Amino acid sequence: MKQKEMIDPSLFVEFFGDYPYIRVLDFLLENDIFDYSKKDISRHANVSWNTLETVWGQLERMNVIVHTRKVGKAEMYKINEKNILVQQLMELNTKLLRYSLEKIKPMRTTIVAADSD
């Protein structure tokens, strides 16, 4: 069995907690331009297939995901940008990023100033 690569959690995952449902949402929010098969979502969100199947029903019921097309046997999905809840999550994700950048900005200035001595 292959071990999954561990990566640093995103700001979204840090804020809401490292749970499979949050990792799936995070992946879909960060990759809203493209559509993905459930297999790809499982792999990129770092959740097992069984776990994805467990959270998938809730994503569908809340209309968070939309079916986009079929490629061969694979059904393709993406985040539903028309859903008001998704829009709010996208806005919050952007605000988390801005907050993080503002927090880092003063640190960068201090580091640059110290390097110029």
Keywords:
three-stranded antiparallel beta sheet, Arc Repressor Mutant, subunit A, 117 residues, alpha+beta
Structural account:
- The chain has a 3-stranded antiparallel β-sheet.
- The mean pLDDT is 87.
- It has a single domain (11-115), classed as Arc Repressor Mutant, subunit A, CATH 1.10.10.
- 59% of the residues lie in helices and 13% in strands.
- It has 5 helices and 3 strands; from the N terminus they run H-H-E-H-H-E-E-H.
The number of distinct helices, counting runs of at least 4 residues, comes to 5
Supply the CATH architecture. Answer: Orthogonal Bundle
Distance between the termini: 52 Å
Helix content: 55-70%
Q: What is the number of strand segments?
A: 3
> Which structural class best describes the helix and strand composition?
alpha+beta
Q: Uncertain regions: pLDDT < 50 for 5+ in a row?
A: none
Radius of gyration: 17 Å
Shape: globular
Average pLDDT value? 87
User: What is the percentage of strand-forming residues?
Assistant: 5-15%
Which CATH first-tier class would you pick?
Mainly Alpha
What is the CATH superfamily label?
Winged helix-like DNA-binding domain superfamily/Winged helix DNA-binding domain
Order of helices and strands: HHEHHEEH
Characterize the biggest β-sheet.
3 strands, antiparallel
Number of domains: 1
Q: Look up the CATH topology.
A: Arc Repressor Mutant, subunit A
The largest sheet has its strands arranged as 1-3-2
